[in-house]
From TrEMBL:
Family statement: Belongs to the transposase mutator family.
Purpose: Required for the transposition of the insertion element.
The entry's keywords: DNA recombination, DNA-binding, Transposable element, Transposition
Protein name: Mutator family transposase
Signal sequence interval, chain numbering: none
Keyword Zinc on entry: no
One example of a Gene Ontology biological process annotation: DNA transposition
Species the sequence originates in: Gordonia humi
Pfam families for this protein: Transposase_mut
Protein's UniProt keywords contain Repressor: no
Amino acid sequence: MVDTTDDKMPGVVPGVMIDAVTSENVDPKQLAEQLLTQAKEQGVNLVGPGGLLSQLTKQVLETALDAEMTEHLGHEYGGTPVAENMRNGTRSKTVITEIGPVEIQVPRDRDGSFEPVIVPKRRRRLDGIDQIVLSLTARGLTTGEIAAHFAEVYGAKVSKDTISRITDKVCGELAEWATRPLDLLYPVIFVDAIVVKVRDGQVRNTAFYVVMGVTTSGERDILGIWAGDGAEGARFWLQVFTELKNRGVNDVLIAVCDGLKGLPEAINSTWPQTVVQQCIVHLLRNSFRYAGRQHRDGIVKALKPVYTAPTEAAALDRFAEFTEQWGQRYPAIIRLWESAWAEFVPFLEYDVEIRRVICTTNAIESINARYRRAIRARGHFPNEAAAMKCLYLVTRSLDPTGGGRARWMMRWKPALNAFAITFADRLD
């Protein structure tokens, strides 16, 4: 047993802080200057083991623990006990903090009933460390890379098992997030796929489908993430959209997708009035699959008058001109647009502000970029659950509240006014 009651704050630097903070009208800047000056005089570093920040963290934690012990016992140190229980020295404990390992003295009581809150029993790290681990995992770092990061940056040894246990804590949070209630109505939802390599006996590509909604207040809301098996059809999509409806989504004005098999039928079975819109950006990208690189600029220039036409009749005229120019060289592009025409033409009926929302995929593409960055950093995942956990941590990082919401775009109000006019009977 180590008794440090007479030497609570080792070192001169923390002593300066005690003298300063016990005086009235403390000036934080003056206090910081005093601490830095004395640290320089004594050759104490700002960071690192035994540094100024480490000593201050030690002092704050020990002071808080002493206050907890006083509240637990009901009397100050040296005071008259209100019961038979009393202080019984301290024990050493090293905790990992955001500035590295810090050794503290934890007070003990005679009957062992003291349960500290700020540094709980059997806890070797503060909560901030868990958030750092989750943040690094969301960026695609493996458990080994995170352990190496702590050793290099903080001089702290954190095992791979500890890191896995920290990330596993979000599994319950993920389940709660995946079943949370949703808004009654979303003006627009986007459906997109992220391809992830999963090692299931052998490494295979697995599609994870992200459904993102735009709320009436103009926020991006990730409604959910679902793993597919590569053979998704109407039945799979009907399960997805039925789940969303059961979570509270009564109506969707426009659903933007990439012509996934069975998806339009499933959407209209769930929300009969929803307009299914072919994603213009994906339609253009799919066109490039059949075109030589040297011709892509010309194809973009020739297709722009089609998807920016004021009416469907004008779009048909422009598409006829495109067919005359490029049809003989790239007939597959012509067939692609003809097969997607029924899902493309609703776009032409809308105001320019609505077109801007459903055509500009920057919002969902920025999210997809973060997903893909984390996936590329990992390479592949041992199973679908590990991949889902990584995608959820990326989603979680978009919103400090953990709800998966983020800002949509600057010009949302004009778009909302256009939606209110176009869908006046449904947007109330």
